[in-house]
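Re: that backbone. C-alpha coordinates:
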Protein backbone atom coordinates (compact mmCIF):
# COMPACT_ATOMS: atom_id res chain seq x y z
CA UNK A 1 0.00 0.00 0.00
CA UNK A 2 1.31 3.46 -0.95
CA UNK A 3 1.72 5.75 2.04
CA UNK A 4 0.20 9.22 1.90
CA UNK A 5 2.88 11.84 2.39
CA UNK A 6 3.07 15.43 3.64
CA UNK A 7 5.69 17.49 1.83
CA UNK A 8 7.68 20.47 3.03
CA UNK A 9 8.43 22.76 0.06
CA UNK A 10 10.53 25.92 0.12
CA UNK A 11 8.33 28.65 -1.42
CA UNK A 12 11.38 30.68 -2.44
CA UNK A 13 12.89 27.91 -4.57
CA UNK A 14 10.23 25.24 -5.09
CA UNK A 15 12.61 22.68 -3.59
CA UNK A 16 11.11 19.81 -1.62
CA UNK A 17 12.86 19.96 1.74
CA UNK A 18 11.45 16.84 3.35
CA UNK A 19 8.52 14.44 3.21
CA UNK A 20 6.72 12.66 6.03
CA UNK A 21 4.17 9.85 6.08
CA UNK A 22 0.68 10.85 7.17
CA UNK A 23 -0.19 9.46 10.59
CA UNK A 24 -2.62 6.58 10.44
CA UNK A 25 -5.25 5.58 13.00
CA UNK A 26 -2.85 3.71 15.27
CA UNK A 27 -0.51 6.69 15.64
CA UNK A 28 -3.43 9.09 16.16
CA UNK A 29 -4.72 6.86 18.93
CA UNK A 30 -1.27 6.73 20.53
CA UNK A 31 -0.89 10.52 20.53
CA UNK A 32 -4.35 11.10 21.99
CA UNK A 33 -3.92 8.44 24.65
CA UNK A 34 -0.54 9.84 25.67
CA UNK A 35 -1.99 13.34 25.91
CA UNK A 36 -4.94 12.22 28.02
CA UNK A 37 -2.68 10.26 30.36
CA UNK A 38 -0.21 13.12 30.72
CA UNK A 39 -2.97 15.64 31.37
CA UNK A 40 -4.46 13.65 34.25
CA UNK A 41 -1.14 13.94 36.09
CA UNK A 42 -0.35 17.45 34.91
CA UNK A 43 -3.59 18.92 36.25
CA UNK A 44 -2.63 17.73 39.76
CA UNK A 45 0.55 19.79 39.78
CA UNK A 46 0.46 23.24 41.33
CA UNK A 47 0.42 26.23 39.05
CA UNK A 48 3.90 27.09 40.37
CA UNK A 49 5.20 23.72 39.14
CA UNK A 50 3.55 24.26 35.77
CA UNK A 51 5.11 27.71 35.34
CA UNK A 52 8.50 26.02 35.49
CA UNK A 53 7.77 24.42 32.11
CA UNK A 54 7.08 27.82 30.57
CA UNK A 55 10.33 29.19 31.93
CA UNK A 56 12.16 26.25 30.39
CA UNK A 57 10.36 26.73 27.08
CA UNK A 58 11.50 30.35 26.97
CA UNK A 59 15.11 29.32 27.58
CA UNK A 60 15.08 26.69 24.84
CA UNK A 61 13.36 29.03 22.38
CA UNK A 62 16.09 31.59 22.83
CA UNK A 63 18.87 29.02 22.70
CA UNK A 64 17.54 27.60 19.43
CA UNK A 65 16.25 30.86 17.96
CA UNK A 66 18.52 30.87 14.92
CA UNK A 67 17.69 27.24 14.11
CA UNK A 68 13.94 27.73 14.49
CA UNK A 69 13.94 31.00 12.54
CA UNK A 70 15.76 29.39 9.62
CA UNK A 71 13.23 26.55 9.58
CA UNK A 72 10.28 28.96 9.60
CA UNK A 73 11.74 30.91 6.67
CA UNK A 74 12.52 27.77 4.69
CA UNK A 75 9.01 26.37 5.08
CA UNK A 76 6.78 29.44 4.67
CA UNK A 77 9.01 32.17 3.26
CA UNK A 78 8.99 35.12 5.66
CA UNK A 79 12.21 37.18 5.91
CA UNK A 80 14.66 35.64 8.36
CA UNK A 81 14.68 38.65 10.68
CA UNK A 82 10.90 38.44 11.02
CA UNK A 83 11.15 34.72 11.76
CA UNK A 84 13.66 35.38 14.53
CA UNK A 85 11.31 38.01 15.92
CA UNK A 86 8.50 35.46 15.92
CA UNK A 87 10.53 33.02 18.00
CA UNK A 88 11.49 35.74 20.47
CA UNK A 89 7.85 36.76 20.82
CA UNK A 90 7.02 33.16 21.76
CA UNK A 91 9.68 33.27 24.48
CA UNK A 92 8.38 36.60 25.80
CA UNK A 93 4.88 35.17 26.01
CA UNK A 94 6.08 32.11 27.92
CA UNK A 95 7.85 34.45 30.34
CA UNK A 96 4.69 36.50 30.73
CA UNK A 97 2.48 33.58 31.64
CA UNK A 98 5.15 32.10 33.89
CA UNK A 99 5.00 35.34 35.87
CA UNK A 100 1.27 36.01 35.82
CA UNK A 101 -0.48 32.63 35.70
CA UNK A 102 -0.53 32.13 39.49
CA UNK A 103 -2.52 35.35 39.95
CA UNK A 104 -4.73 34.71 36.90
CA UNK A 105 -5.64 31.22 38.14
CA UNK A 106 -6.07 32.12 41.79
CA UNK A 107 -9.55 31.63 43.21
CA UNK A 108 -11.83 34.66 42.93
CA UNK A 109 -13.70 35.24 46.20
CA UNK A 110 -17.27 36.49 45.76
CA UNK A 111 -19.45 37.82 48.56
CA UNK A 112 -22.74 35.94 48.83
CA UNK A 113 -25.00 34.40 51.47
CA UNK A 114 -22.60 31.46 51.82
CA UNK A 115 -19.99 30.94 54.48
CA UNK A 116 -17.55 30.90 51.55
CA UNK A 117 -18.21 31.33 47.84
CA UNK A 118 -15.60 31.49 45.15
CA UNK A 119 -14.90 30.98 41.47
CA UNK A 120 -12.18 28.46 40.64
CA UNK A 121 -10.50 27.76 37.31
CA UNK A 122 -10.08 24.06 36.55
CA UNK A 123 -8.47 22.71 33.36
CA UNK A 124 -10.71 21.21 30.68
CA UNK A 125 -8.45 18.36 29.51
CA UNK A 126 -6.80 17.90 26.11
CA UNK A 127 -7.06 20.87 23.72
CA UNK A 128 -6.79 20.22 19.98
CA UNK A 129 -4.96 23.09 18.25
CA UNK A 130 -5.59 23.33 14.49
CA UNK A 131 -3.09 25.92 13.37
CA UNK A 132 -2.06 27.84 10.21
CA UNK A 133 1.26 28.28 8.43
CA UNK A 134 1.72 32.06 8.47
CA UNK A 135 3.12 32.26 12.03
CA UNK A 136 3.98 28.60 12.52
CA UNK A 137 5.53 28.99 16.00
CA UNK A 138 3.66 32.01 17.37
CA UNK A 139 0.14 30.84 16.57
CA UNK A 140 0.82 27.55 18.35
CA UNK A 141 2.59 28.84 21.44
CA UNK A 142 0.31 31.80 22.08
CA UNK A 143 -2.45 29.25 22.61
CA UNK A 144 -0.44 26.38 24.08
CA UNK A 145 1.40 28.34 26.77
CA UNK A 146 -1.70 29.59 28.63
CA UNK A 147 -3.64 26.37 28.02
CA UNK A 148 -0.87 24.23 29.47
CA UNK A 149 -0.09 26.43 32.46
CA UNK A 150 -3.81 26.17 33.26
CA UNK A 151 -3.40 22.38 33.47
CA UNK A 152 -4.40 21.24 29.99
CA UNK A 153 -2.54 19.11 27.45
CA UNK A 154 -2.28 20.19 23.80
CA UNK A 155 -2.37 18.17 20.59
CA UNK A 156 -1.28 20.05 17.47
CA UNK A 157 -2.60 19.53 13.97
CA UNK A 158 -0.50 22.00 11.99
CA UNK A 159 -0.90 23.27 8.43
CA UNK A 160 0.21 20.79 5.81
CA UNK A 161 2.98 22.98 4.40
CA UNK A 162 4.88 23.37 7.71
CA UNK A 163 5.42 19.80 8.95
CA UNK A 164 9.01 20.47 9.97
CA UNK A 165 7.89 23.35 12.17
CA UNK A 166 5.30 21.07 13.76
CA UNK A 167 7.92 18.45 14.57
CA UNK A 168 10.35 21.11 15.79
CA UNK A 169 7.70 22.33 18.22
CA UNK A 170 7.40 18.77 19.50
CA UNK A 171 11.16 18.65 20.04
CA UNK A 172 10.99 22.01 21.82
CA UNK A 173 8.63 20.62 24.46
CA UNK A 174 10.72 17.48 24.90
CA UNK A 175 13.89 19.51 25.42
CA UNK A 176 12.09 21.85 27.82
CA UNK A 177 11.20 18.86 30.00
CA UNK A 178 7.47 18.56 29.35
CA UNK A 179 5.98 15.28 30.58
CA UNK A 180 5.77 12.70 27.81
CA UNK A 181 2.63 13.19 25.74
CA UNK A 182 1.65 16.57 27.20
CA UNK A 183 2.28 18.20 23.83
CA UNK A 184 1.47 15.90 20.93
CA UNK A 185 1.86 16.37 17.18
CA UNK A 186 -0.42 14.85 14.55
CA UNK A 187 0.71 14.83 10.93
CA UNK A 188 -2.70 14.27 9.38
CA UNK A 189 -4.72 15.61 6.49
CA UNK A 190 -7.56 18.04 7.09
CA UNK A 191 -10.09 15.29 6.43
CA UNK A 192 -8.96 13.54 9.63
CA UNK A 193 -9.74 16.50 11.91
CA UNK A 194 -13.46 15.77 12.26
CA UNK A 195 -12.81 12.38 13.83
CA UNK A 196 -10.16 13.81 16.16
CA UNK A 197 -12.57 16.51 17.36
CA UNK A 198 -15.22 13.88 18.01
CA UNK A 199 -12.83 11.69 20.02
CA UNK A 200 -13.85 11.72 23.72
CA UNK A 201 -10.24 12.38 24.75
CA UNK A 202 -10.44 15.84 23.17
CA UNK A 203 -12.11 18.38 25.46
CA UNK A 204 -11.85 21.58 23.42
CA UNK A 205 -10.60 23.04 20.14
CA UNK A 206 -8.68 26.17 19.21
CA UNK A 207 -8.47 27.10 15.54
CA UNK A 208 -6.71 29.88 13.65
CA UNK A 209 -7.26 30.13 9.93
CA UNK A 210 -9.71 31.12 7.23
CA UNK A 211 -13.36 31.88 7.88
CA UNK A 212 -14.68 29.06 5.64
CA UNK A 213 -12.58 26.44 7.43
CA UNK A 214 -13.52 28.03 10.77
CA UNK A 215 -17.19 27.45 10.00
CA UNK A 216 -16.45 23.77 9.43
CA UNK A 217 -14.43 23.45 12.64
CA UNK A 218 -17.15 25.26 14.61
CA UNK A 219 -19.81 22.95 13.20
CA UNK A 220 -17.82 19.84 14.07
CA UNK A 221 -16.97 21.02 17.58
CA UNK A 222 -20.49 22.27 18.12
CA UNK A 223 -21.93 18.91 17.12
CA UNK A 224 -19.73 17.34 19.80
CA UNK A 225 -20.62 20.15 22.27
CA UNK A 226 -16.96 21.02 22.82
CA UNK A 227 -15.58 24.44 23.70
CA UNK A 228 -13.91 26.24 20.83
CA UNK A 229 -11.96 29.43 20.20
CA UNK A 230 -11.83 30.67 16.61
CA UNK A 231 -9.46 33.33 15.27
CA UNK A 232 -10.42 33.70 11.63
CA UNK A 233 -9.93 36.03 8.69
CA UNK A 234 -9.77 39.79 8.71
CA UNK A 235 -9.96 42.82 6.45
CA UNK A 236 -8.66 45.31 8.96
CA UNK A 237 -9.32 49.01 8.39
CA UNK A 238 -6.53 51.56 8.84
CA UNK A 239 -8.28 54.92 9.23
CA UNK A 240 -6.38 58.16 8.64
CA UNK A 241 -8.26 61.30 9.64
CA UNK A 242 -7.46 64.81 8.46
CA UNK A 243 -5.80 65.80 11.75
CA UNK A 244 -3.40 62.82 11.78
CA UNK A 245 0.34 62.93 11.32
CA UNK A 246 0.04 61.73 7.73
CA UNK A 247 3.70 60.93 7.16
CA UNK A 248 3.90 58.88 10.36
CA UNK A 249 0.70 57.11 9.39
CA UNK A 250 2.08 56.25 5.94
CA UNK A 251 5.28 54.88 7.44
CA UNK A 252 3.30 52.74 9.88
CA UNK A 253 0.98 51.66 7.06
CA UNK A 254 3.87 49.98 5.23
CA UNK A 255 4.63 47.84 8.27
CA UNK A 256 0.95 47.21 8.95
CA UNK A 257 0.31 45.96 5.42
CA UNK A 258 3.53 44.32 4.28
CA UNK A 259 5.04 42.54 7.29
CA UNK A 260 5.01 38.76 6.80
CA UNK A 261 4.61 39.54 3.09
CA UNK A 262 1.08 40.70 3.88
CA UNK A 263 0.06 37.21 4.95
CA UNK A 264 -1.52 37.97 8.30
CA UNK A 265 -5.10 38.06 9.55
CA UNK A 266 -4.41 41.34 11.38
CA UNK A 267 -2.55 43.07 8.57
CA UNK A 268 -4.12 46.41 7.67
CA UNK A 269 -5.81 45.82 4.34
CA UNK A 270 -8.20 48.74 3.78
CA UNK A 271 -6.65 52.21 4.14
CA UNK A 272 -9.59 54.54 4.73
CA UNK A 273 -8.42 58.14 4.37
CA UNK A 274 -10.17 61.49 4.61
CA UNK A 275 -10.22 63.26 1.24
CA UNK A 276 -8.32 66.32 2.41
CA UNK A 277 -5.17 64.28 3.18
CA UNK A 278 -5.71 61.34 0.82
CA UNK A 279 -3.31 62.54 -1.89
CA UNK A 280 -0.53 63.14 0.63
CA UNK A 281 -1.06 59.75 2.27
CA UNK A 282 -1.33 57.88 -1.03
CA UNK A 283 1.82 59.48 -2.45
CA UNK A 284 3.79 58.68 0.71
CA UNK A 285 2.53 55.11 0.87
CA UNK A 286 3.34 54.50 -2.79
CA UNK A 287 6.85 55.94 -2.44
CA UNK A 288 7.61 53.81 0.61
CA UNK A 289 6.11 50.69 -0.97
CA UNK A 290 8.24 51.11 -4.09
CA UNK A 291 11.35 51.06 -1.87
CA UNK A 292 10.62 47.65 -0.36
CA UNK A 293 13.20 44.99 -1.20
CA UNK A 294 11.72 41.79 -2.57
CA UNK A 295 13.95 38.74 -2.70
CA UNK A 296 15.58 35.82 -0.94
CA UNK A 297 14.05 35.69 2.55
CA UNK A 298 17.34 34.35 3.91
CA UNK A 299 19.26 37.41 2.71
CA UNK A 300 19.84 40.38 5.04
CA UNK A 301 17.86 43.43 4.01
CA UNK A 302 14.97 41.57 2.37
CA UNK A 303 11.61 43.14 3.23
CA UNK A 304 9.28 40.88 1.24
CA UNK A 305 9.74 37.17 0.72
CA UNK A 306 7.68 34.81 -1.40
CA UNK A 307 4.08 33.99 -0.72
CA UNK A 308 3.65 30.61 0.89
CA UNK A 309 2.04 28.87 -2.09
CA UNK A 310 1.57 29.55 -5.78
CA UNK A 311 -2.20 29.17 -5.41
CA UNK A 312 -2.28 31.99 -2.85
CA UNK A 313 -0.31 34.26 -5.18
CA UNK A 314 -2.61 33.48 -8.10
CA UNK A 315 -5.74 34.12 -6.02
CA UNK A 316 -4.34 37.46 -4.86
CA UNK A 317 -3.53 38.53 -8.42
CA UNK A 318 -7.07 37.67 -9.50
CA UNK A 319 -8.39 39.96 -6.75
CA UNK A 320 -6.13 42.78 -7.90
CA UNK A 321 -7.19 42.39 -11.53
CA UNK A 322 -10.87 42.29 -10.60
CA UNK A 323 -10.52 45.44 -8.49
CA UNK A 324 -8.79 47.34 -11.32
CA UNK A 325 -11.49 46.23 -13.74
CA UNK A 326 -14.03 47.67 -11.30
CA UNK A 327 -12.37 51.11 -11.55
CA UNK A 328 -9.57 51.21 -8.99
CA UNK A 329 -6.27 52.85 -9.94
CA UNK A 330 -3.16 50.67 -9.85
CA UNK A 331 -0.38 52.84 -8.41
CA UNK A 332 2.40 50.34 -7.57
CA UNK A 333 3.05 46.69 -8.42
CA UNK A 334 0.08 44.56 -9.42
CA UNK A 335 1.90 41.56 -10.87
CA UNK A 336 3.72 38.35 -10.04
CA UNK A 337 7.49 38.52 -10.34
CA UNK A 338 9.15 36.56 -13.14
CA UNK A 339 11.56 34.58 -11.00
CA UNK A 340 11.75 31.26 -9.21
CA UNK A 341 9.47 31.17 -6.20
CA UNK A 342 5.99 32.44 -5.36
CA UNK A 343 6.77 36.17 -5.40
CA UNK A 344 4.25 38.98 -5.82
CA UNK A 345 5.20 42.63 -6.18
CA UNK A 346 4.12 44.90 -3.29
CA UNK A 347 1.01 46.60 -4.61
CA UNK A 348 -1.01 49.75 -3.92
CA UNK A 349 -4.50 50.24 -5.31
CA UNK A 350 -5.98 53.76 -5.06
CA UNK A 351 -9.55 55.05 -5.41
CA UNK A 352 -10.94 51.71 -4.31
CA UNK A 353 -14.69 51.72 -3.79
CA UNK A 354 -16.15 50.02 -0.74
CA UNK A 355 -18.03 47.59 -3.00
CA UNK A 356 -14.93 46.52 -4.95
CA UNK A 357 -13.26 43.13 -4.50
CA UNK A 358 -10.21 44.42 -2.62
CA UNK A 359 -12.51 46.14 -0.12
CA UNK A 360 -15.00 43.31 0.33
CA UNK A 361 -12.70 40.27 0.38
CA UNK A 362 -9.68 39.47 2.51
CA UNK A 363 -6.53 40.06 0.44
CA UNK A 364 -4.00 37.71 2.00
CA UNK A 365 -0.80 39.08 0.54
CA UNK A 366 1.13 42.30 -0.21
CA UNK A 367 -1.70 44.45 -1.55
CA UNK A 368 -2.93 47.74 -0.01
CA UNK A 369 -6.29 49.26 -0.96
CA UNK A 370 -6.84 53.02 -0.43
CA UNK A 371 -10.45 54.10 0.08
CA UNK A 372 -11.19 57.83 0.15
CA UNK A 373 -13.96 59.21 2.39
CA UNK A 374 -15.50 62.60 3.20
CA UNK A 375 -15.14 62.66 6.98
CA UNK A 376 -14.70 60.65 10.16
CA UNK A 377 -18.30 59.45 10.26
CA UNK A 378 -18.02 57.98 6.78
CA UNK A 379 -14.65 56.47 7.68
CA UNK A 380 -16.18 54.55 10.58
CA UNK A 381 -19.15 53.49 8.46
CA UNK A 382 -16.85 52.16 5.74
CA UNK A 383 -14.64 50.45 8.33
CA UNK A 384 -17.70 48.63 9.68
CA UNK A 385 -19.09 47.73 6.24
CA UNK A 386 -17.40 44.34 6.20
CA UNK A 387 -18.22 40.85 7.38
CA UNK A 388 -14.96 40.83 9.35
CA UNK A 389 -14.16 42.33 12.74
CA UNK A 390 -10.66 41.42 13.89
CA UNK A 391 -8.54 44.55 14.35
CA UNK A 392 -8.55 48.21 13.35
CA UNK A 393 -6.16 51.15 13.45
CA UNK A 394 -7.21 54.78 13.85
CA UNK A 395 -4.84 57.69 13.18
CA UNK A 396 -5.79 61.12 14.55
CA UNK A 397 -4.32 63.97 16.54
CA UNK A 398 -7.44 64.22 18.74
CA UNK A 399 -7.12 61.57 21.43
CA UNK A 400 -10.47 62.41 23.01
CA UNK A 401 -12.28 61.87 19.71
CA UNK A 402 -10.18 58.75 19.16
CA UNK A 403 -11.61 57.19 22.29
CA UNK A 404 -15.14 58.03 21.15
CA UNK A 405 -14.64 56.69 17.63
CA UNK A 406 -12.88 53.53 18.82
CA UNK A 407 -16.04 52.52 20.66
CA UNK A 408 -17.97 52.76 17.37
CA UNK A 409 -15.59 50.54 15.39
CA UNK A 410 -16.68 46.90 15.17
CA UNK A 411 -13.46 45.05 15.93
CA UNK A 412 -11.85 42.96 18.65
CA UNK A 413 -9.05 45.52 18.99
CA UNK A 414 -8.59 49.16 18.01
CA UNK A 415 -5.09 50.63 17.99
CA UNK A 416 -4.93 54.43 18.05
CA UNK A 417 -1.87 55.87 16.27
CA UNK A 418 -0.25 52.45 16.13
CA UNK A 419 -0.07 49.17 14.23
CA UNK A 420 -2.43 46.37 15.27
CA UNK A 421 -0.47 43.56 16.91
CA UNK A 422 -1.07 40.69 19.30
CA UNK A 423 0.41 41.19 22.77
CA UNK A 424 0.58 38.63 25.56
CA UNK A 425 -0.70 41.23 28.02
CA UNK A 426 -3.91 41.99 26.11
CA UNK A 427 -6.82 39.83 24.92
CA UNK A 428 -6.80 39.06 21.21
CA UNK A 429 -9.67 37.94 18.99
CA UNK A 430 -12.51 39.17 16.83
CA UNK A 431 -16.21 39.22 16.17
CA UNK A 432 -18.54 38.76 13.21
CA UNK A 433 -16.86 36.49 10.62
CA UNK A 434 -13.48 36.93 12.32
CA UNK A 435 -14.46 34.42 14.99
CA UNK A 436 -15.09 34.40 18.72
CA UNK A 437 -13.33 33.73 21.99
CA UNK A 438 -10.09 35.31 23.10
CA UNK A 439 -6.43 34.41 23.25
CA UNK A 440 -3.75 36.04 25.40
CA UNK A 441 -4.08 38.13 28.53
CA UNK A 442 -6.08 36.90 31.50
CA UNK A 443 -9.09 36.24 29.27
CA UNK A 444 -7.13 33.95 26.97
CA UNK A 445 -5.79 31.97 29.90
CA UNK A 446 -9.28 31.35 31.26
CA UNK A 447 -10.83 30.36 27.90
CA UNK A 448 -9.74 26.74 28.37
CA UNK A 449 -10.74 26.40 31.99
CA UNK A 450 -13.93 25.30 33.67
CA UNK A 451 -15.00 28.50 35.41
CA UNK A 452 -16.57 26.79 38.39
CA UNK A 453 -18.60 28.15 41.28
CA UNK A 454 -17.83 26.58 44.67
CA UNK A 455 -20.42 27.49 47.34
CA UNK A 456 -19.88 26.43 50.96
CA UNK A 457 -22.69 26.62 53.49
CA UNK A 458 -24.45 27.07 55.70
CA UNK A 459 -26.21 30.07 54.25
CA UNK A 460 -25.82 33.20 56.32
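Recovered sequence:
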Amino acid sequence: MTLKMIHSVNPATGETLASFPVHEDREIDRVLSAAATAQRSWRQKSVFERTGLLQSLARVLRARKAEFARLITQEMGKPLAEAAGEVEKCAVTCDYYASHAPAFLDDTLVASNATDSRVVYDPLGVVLAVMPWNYPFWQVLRGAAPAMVAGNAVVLKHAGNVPQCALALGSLFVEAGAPEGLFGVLLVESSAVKAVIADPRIAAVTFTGSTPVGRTIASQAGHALKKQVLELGGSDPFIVLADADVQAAAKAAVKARFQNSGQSCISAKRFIVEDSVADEFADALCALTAQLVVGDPMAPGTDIGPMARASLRDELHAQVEATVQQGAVLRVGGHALAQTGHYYAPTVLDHVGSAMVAAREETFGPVAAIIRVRDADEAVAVANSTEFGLGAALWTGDKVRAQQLSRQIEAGAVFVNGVVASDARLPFGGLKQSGYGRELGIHGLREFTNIKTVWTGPAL
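The first strand starts at residue 5 and ends at 9. Residues 5-232+434-456 form a domain with the Aldehyde Dehydrogenase; Chain A, domain 1 fold (CATH 3.40.605.10).
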